[in-house]
Amino acid sequence: MKLEGVRVLDLSLFLPGPMLTQMMSDHGADVIKVEPRGKGEPNREIDLKRDGVSVFFANTHRGKKSIELDLKTDEGKELLYQLAEKSDVFVEAFRPGVVKRLGVDYDTIRKRAPNIVYCSISAFGQDGPYAGIPAHDLATEALAGILSVTQGQDGKPAMPGIAAADIISAMMGLSAVLMALLRRKETGQGDFIDMAMMDALISSVPNNMGSVLADKEPPVVKNQRPWGGNAMYNIYETLDGKFVVMGAAELHFAKNVLEALGRPDLLDLCQPPPGPTQEPVRAFLKETFLSRTQADWVEFFKDIECAFVPVQNMREAVDDEHVRYREMIIEDAHGHEHLGTPLKFRNEPGQLNLDLPGLGEHSEQILKDLGLSDIEITSLKQKKVI
User: What are the start and end residues of each CATH 3.40.50.10540 domain in the chain?
Assistant: First the structure.
C-alpha cells in the first residue's frame, strides 16, 4: 500500500485529526494512537454503539494501535520522545499552547526527531487574535461566514449537514502531511504544519465569493446561483412530502427540462443572472413538482438528460447501488457496516483493517518494540505512566 513503512503518532481527539490519520491507516501507515491515561479518545463514547463500540469510533480508528500515556509525567514525555524518534508523522489537535505546556510541541519534538512531519490542527491556527479561543466545528463555521449562507427555508442560519470545518481541515491536513513527506525525500528535513479549520473553510468557497470580493458585500443567499437563485439549480418538494433536486443549470439541460414539461417558452428566463428574474420559472417548477410523487418524477426524468435526482435520506444513500458498488459501505464478519475509503488507487489500493483498538491495548507491545524490558514496563504501570 502507498503508505507502508510510514509511522504516525496520533495525539488528536474527536474528528479532524482521527479522520486524517484514519486515511493514512487505510493505506498502510502504522498509526499509534496516544490516548490520555484513564480517559481515552472521547469518541469512544459518542453516538450509538454496536457490541459496546461506538459507530463514531469505529469509523475513525480502525486498524490503529492504542497506547495510554500520561504526558504530565517525565517518564511519559520521554516515552513519547522515543516514539517520535521512530516515527515519520506527529498529529495533534489541542488548543494552541497546550502542547508547549506538556513539553511535546514541535520545537521540543524536533530536537529528538528532526525529520518529523508535525501537524497541528486547531480551530483558528497557532497565532492570531482568535488563536486561544475554544471552538468546535459550529463556531468555526459561524466565524468563517459559512453558517450565514447555510440557511433554512426561513432564511435564518441552520445547523449544517456535515461538520465541514472538521472534515475539510482533515483532508487539507492530509494533503499537507503528504506534501511534507514528499519534500522530506529531497531535504531529509521534517516540517511543521499549522492547519486551521477556519483557514480551510475560507479557502473552500472560491465559487461563492463573487459579491464578497467584487462588491465588498455579503451575498444575498436566495439570489445566488449555488443557493437557490437559479430556478434550474434548486430543491423542490413533491406530492408525497419528499424532495427532488433539479440540477439543470446549463441552458441545454434547462431546454430539455422545459420541453419535457411543455413550457419551452420559459427558457429565456433561465438566462443569467440568477435571482428575481427567474421567479416565474421557480414558481412553475414548484407547482409542477407538487403534482406527483418523488418516485413518479424519478420515472419521468429517467431518460431526460438534465441532472435530476431524488433527495435520499442517509439510510437510502448507504443502500444505494452505486455507493455499494464503489465499496463506500462495507460489512464485517458480524454484519456491521463501516464507511469505506474514498481514495481509490488502481495499484496498491487501500486495505481496510476493521480491528479496533481497546484503550491502551497495545501499550506493552509498543514499549517492547522501543526496547523496554518487562520489569521497566511493570514499573511504568505501577507509577500510572501507562
Answer: 7-203+356-382
Smallest Cα–Cα separation from 110: which of 180, 25, 24, 18?
Answer: 180
Q: Give 96-147 pLDDT, tens digit per residue.
A: 999 999 999 999 999 999 999 999 999 999 999 999 999 999 999 999 999 9
Q: pLDDT tens across 185-224, in order?
A: 999 999 999 999 999 999 999 999 999 999 999 999 888 8
**Cα 69 to Cα 294: distance, rounded to the nearest angstrom:** 54
C-alpha cell at 130: 482568535
Q: Which single residue is written with the C-alpha cell 522515543?
A: 82
Rounded CA separation 237/235 (Å): 7
Start-end ranges of CATH 3.30.1540.10 in the chain? Answer: 221-237+243-310
CB-CB neighbours of 214 under 10 Å:
8
Residues facing residue 89 across a β-bridge: 8, 117
CATH of domain 221-237+243-310: 3.30.1540.10
Closest C-alpha among 68, 12, 11 to residue 384: 68
- Based on DSSP, count helices (H) and strands (E) in the chain, helices before strands: 15, 13
Note the CATH architecture for domain 7-203+356-382: 3-Layer(aba) Sandwich (3.40)
The closest of 66, 198, 192 to 145, measured between CA atoms, is: 198
